[in-house]
Amino acid sequence: MAGFGVGVQDPVMAARPVVDTLTRVNYLSAVAGRADSLWAPDHLNALFPRALWQPKYVGVTKIMPSVDAYLEPWTMLGHIAARNRVARLRLGTSVTDTGRRNPAVTAQAAATLHLLTRGRAILGIGTGEREGNEPYGVEWSKPVARFEEAIATIRALWDSGGALVNRDSPYFPLRNALFDLPPYRGTWPPIWIAAHGPRMLRAVGRYGDGFLPASPHQPHQYAERLDAVRAAASDAGRDPLSIVPALWIGVVTGRSAAEVDEALDSEMIKAWVLNANDEFFAHHGAQHPLGVGFAGGQDLLPHGWDEQTALSHIKGITPEMVRGTALVGTPGEIIDQVAVWRDCGVRYIVLANLSALQRSLRSGLTAVVPFHRIVRGIKKL
Fold first, then answer.
1. Given the residues 114, 129, 149, 196, the one annotated as active site
2. Is 43 considered catalytic here?
3. What distance lies between CA 113 and its chain's CA centroid?
4. Is 115 helix (H, G, I), strand (E, B) or coil?
């Protein structure tokens, strides 16, 4: 892959004055920033405490009334593709869910988008999180095993050539299943897998076209995991260098160091750190508010917390801890940070602008300008 690829995460959350106002702005801003792609999350609700989604904590509540009002990603990506003809960015999910989505439906959605966009779709996929599964009656005891079967099912359907497919599986058995959508010019959407643990890393090597873990983790950990992915690819008889080494990571930025410090003191940005696991907290000399052994965002269920509970959970979170879970600083500082990730193997980065989660609406909105300076700067790495 030539050059350094940059994607921009859109929250695809219902906004004012019309539901896709922010998505329209984000798409055009991504084009202006010379991004390569736009990405949509797949959530029914957020990984942030809704009890803190109040104007006194988050200024952008005036534009986005609910932190949990997520739009369905495949519908939104189709809408984006149809509405925006400028620059024709690649469109991906970051990431879709193998817990509550049947893999045949995911295979159909991704193939449809790939056809409609003339080969611009990327299927970002992972196990999902507890918050989008367990509250809705989806079994959550073996998410990795379910994921492995889902990926194998998608590949089996795509590779079937329209023939009937029969496949034994404890989760998704196929009995004379038919998949007859054609690939776009002989290609299916590349599959980029969000993976962190050893078993998921092996799955990337066997099935993935891209490796797309999410922060929080450190550059040296990324390098170690990328080595594991490439070893698994070699073991599977695949070219290890054909897998795109990507990274999803949040950004907290501003026009000055003072604006960055102001953002870091905001309650909802501190709440982002709760997505880290207990090892991260221990590294910073603290205990995770959700207890020893807490695994991080995959098991986070913040929706039942009241305001005081949420505030108590973020009380001990420091600016340094935020810096350990995201790219933080002015544009020049963040570009230097990305260079460290590049030196550890990253060649494509998907950026989520967390700056809007601060108390000041004005500062959150004006942070868009330095954010897109970062996108342009990374393109030059």
1. 129
2. yes
3. 18
4. helix
Give 300-351 pLDDT, tens digit per residue.
999 999 999 999 999 999 999 999 999 999 999 999 999 999 999 999 999 9
> Closest by alpha carbon to 255, among 181, 363, 359, 122?
363
pLDDT of 2 over the 80 cut: no
**Segments of the chain assigned E as strands:** 5-9, 37-40, 90-93, 96-97, 121-126, 165-167, 174-177, 191-193, 210-211, 244-253, 327-329, 348-353
Task: State yes or no: is 372 an active-site residue.
Answer: no
CA dihedral 112, 117, 119, 123 (to 10 degrees): -60
- Rounded Cα distance between 331 and 355, Å, is 13
Number of H helices, E strands in the chain: 14, 12
Catalytic residue among 43, 196, 217, 313: 43
State residue 236 phi and psi, 5-degree precision.
-90, 5
Dist CA 13 CA 20 (whole Å)? 8
Phi-psi category of 366—alpha, beta or left, where left has phi over 0 and alpha has psi -120 to 50? alpha
